[in-house]
Each structure stands twice: as structure tokens, then as C-alpha cells.
Amino acid sequence: MSRAGTAVAAESSTAKLARFFPTATPVRIPVRLSRIEGAQENKCEHTVIEYGTSQEVLFASKLRLEFADLLQLQNSDGTLNAQACVVAVQYNAGHTAVAARFTQQVPNWIVKS
Q: Which backbone phi and psi does 51 adopt, to 5 degrees?
């Protein structure tokens, strides 16, 4: 006998990390993420910002990121092109969730009233 309706969707690693950011809002913003090492950008990937606050972004990453790493985030139309610093990394079952705080105010990011 099957139990229809009892399946529970697995919570993503990023959603688990978002619990520590009470003002985080779900978003889906594809970005190019680059880790900045020294004076040049290095190691990049395409990912999706899954949650955001007025100052932070939360996303999954395959890069080996650590606390205080400096990142460059760019979306395809150039309306988001900002640097952020890693403030939290959470490893969960082979997935890495990252929270990064913008190093400067980003205009027209997430507007909260």
C-alpha cells in the first residue's frame, strides 16, 4: 500500500544555511562567481543566488571556498557586478552552501520596506 502525499522534499544545503539569516528572501539569480586571489580573478563557476538580504547572498558552490575569501558576482546583463566576502560556509552531504556579504552597498539589490 503506497502512502500518497507523505513524500517530503529534501531541504537544500543553502536553505539550511538561510536559517541563520532571518531576513533572507528566496531569489533565483543566475550569476558568474569568481574567487579573487591577489590582484586577479581566479577560479570561476556559474551558480544561482538562492537567497538574499540587503547585504548578503547565499548560494551553492563547487569551488573550495573558505571564510573571508573575496568573490566577484556578476549576472548576465551586468546589473549585478559586485564583490563580496565569504562570511559562512556549511558542508552538508557533499554540498557546500555559502553566504557572502557585499563589500560595498549594492544599489537596487533587494529592497526591503
A: -140, 150
Q: Residue by residue, what is the 3-state secondary structure of 56-107? A: EEEEEECCCCCCCCEEEEECCCCCCEEEEEEEEEEEECCEEEEEEEECCCCC
The pTM score is 0.84
> What does the alpha-carbon distance between residue 93 and residue 48 come to, in Å, rounded to a whole number?
19
Average model confidence (pLDDT) across the chain: 86
23-102: in CATH 3.40.50.1820: no
CA 36/CA 11 separation, integer angstroms: 30
Q: Which residue has the higher pLDDT, 20 or 78?
A: 20
Element (H, E) at 14: helix 13-18
Looking only at Cα atoms, what is the longest distance across the chain?
62
> Residue 81's beta-bridge partner residues?
74
pLDDT value, residue 40? 59
**Closest-CA residue to 72 (of 106, 107, 38, 41):** 41
Quick one: pLDDT at residue 41?
Answer: 61
